[in-house]
UniProtKB/TrEMBL annotation:
GO terms of molecular function: ferrous iron transmembrane transporter activity
Lineage per the UniProt record: Bacteria, Bacillati, Actinomycetota, Actinomycetes, Micromonosporales
Localization, UniProt: Membrane
GO cellular component, one term: high-affinity iron permease complex
NCBIfam families (alphabetical): EfeU
Chain ranges passing through the membrane: 6-27, 34-58, 70-90, 111-129, 149-171, 178-198, 243-262
Protein name (database record): High-affinity iron transporter
Alphabetized Pfam families for the sequence: FTR1 (PF03239)
Length: 279
């Protein structure tokens, strides 16, 4: 539930920030009548995202056991691709996201009402579908279906409250620091999902070596211990992983985490020569 809460918080805050930017732009430019179009686009995106999540759960339940394992493996890899793209995109675009959204909304206003709703819809549906896939992938192997729902609901509600407080300037949060720390944690969560994808491939007999363990620390991390359950739920840690699972976790987790935390290059202004200055 902890990992799913983090997913809901991170994705939910991105959605909330996008919506608050659009709302603030319309309010400050004295275009309040257009707010209903923005909320219509947001509502449609939310309904489709929830429907997609339900479709995933119901559709997979009708598959055979082997096909379920294969589908879950594919869903895990798709979710990891989403997470990786999302955290690097957010790190690169966070400073310019507001300007880009305001520009799109200004252009949509000139086109017509449908375009205004479309900007809000497209801005939210991407995050919504990502959240649905991530939720499905992270909830695999959960003991029940209630705790994942509680985790994603609490995460989204926390994001909405934080977004509202930021909008009314009741709180101040260093968003760059927030997205850096949550991004680093999501890399570790994604590494666990990536590892679980290979576990599903082994379960479906696409890959062998399920019983070839890289190590076994079950005595130190008994399944009933709270800390073992926390590590399993957060990072998909298992006390006796296979060699393939361990290699998959390390092959994704270490290089992606290093690249994500590596300081971004800043462009230096070009040196001005005397001749250029004279010109």
């Amino acid at each position: 539930m902890t990992a799913i809460y983090l997913i809901g918080l991170r994705e939910g805050l991105e959605i909330t920030l996008v919506v608050s930017i659009l709302v603030a732009f319309l309010v400050k430019s004295d275009r309040r009548p257009l707010l209903r179009l923005v909320w219509a686009g947001v509502a449609l995106a939310a309904v489709i995202s929830v429907g997609f999540a339900v479709l995933l759960r119901v559709g997979v339940a009708t598959l055979s056991s082997t096909h379920q394992e294969l589908f879950e493996a594919i869903a895990s890899f798709v979710a990891v691709a989403f997470v990786t793209w999302m955290i690097f995109w957010m790190r690169r675009m966070a400073r310019h996201m507001g300007r880009e959204l305001r520009g799109k909304m200004e252009g949509a206003i000139q086109v017509g009402p449908a375009a205004v709703a479309g900007v809000a819809f497209l801005a939210v549906i991407r995050e919504g579908l990502e959240t649905s896939v991530l939720f499905y992938a992270a909830a695999q192997g959960a003991a029940d279906s209630v705790r994942p729902l509680i985790g994603i609901t609490l995460g989204l509600l926390t994001a909405v409250v934080l977004g509202w407080l930021l909008y009314i300037s009741a709180v101040r949060i260093n968003l760059s620091t927030f997205f850096t720390w949550t991004g680093a944690l999501l890399v570790l969560v994604a590494a666990g999902i990536f590892k679980y994808g290979f576990h599903d491939l082994q379960e479906s007999n696409v890959l062998g070596g399920l019983n070839h363990h890289a190590f076994d620390v079950t005595s130190a991390f008994p399944p009933s211990a709270w800390y073992a359950e926390l590590l399993r739920g957060m990072f998909n840690f298992t006390p006796a992983p296979s060699v393939i699972e361990t290699v998959a976790w390390l092959a994704y987790g270490i290089p992606v985490l290093v690249l994500f935390l590596w300081p971004a290059r800043t462009r230096q202004p070009a040196a001005t020569t005397p001749a250029t200055t004279a010109s």
